Amino acid sequence: MSIPNPTIAGLRCFNHGGREAVAQCLECTRYYCRECVTAHGGRVLCADCLGHTAVNAAPRKPVITMAWRGLQLVTGFVVVWMVVYMTGRGLLWLPSEFHEHLIWENEWFPNP
Ligand SMILES: [Zn+2]
Ligand SMILES: [Zn+2]
Prior knowledge:
Elements: E1 23-24, E2 31-32, E3 37-40, E4 43-46, H1 47-57, H2 60-93, H3 96-99, H4 103-108
Antiparallel strand pairs: 1-2, 3-4
Bound molecules: zinc ion (2 copies).
One zinc ion binds next to loops.
């Protein structure tokens, strides 16, 4: 995942004393072996810091998602309401003869 850093050669993993460190965590600046670090969002983090990041980020995401869902719901409701409203207005705009089927007889198809 990460390129072995020559400056940390000889250093040992913080969790595994017997293993050689291959990467430094960007959060806690401790050194870890390949097994203990993961690349998260382009940053190398140890399991501990990854957990902290996930805990800190977790409560924020659902709030944004719920707000977005709410906005979508309101927008959808407004759109549906406008369609129904405009349809109603359109029907009201039509002369009453249209609804009573008299327009066909009186204006467009006059009786001889
Ligand atoms: Zn860390
Ligand atoms: Zn390790």
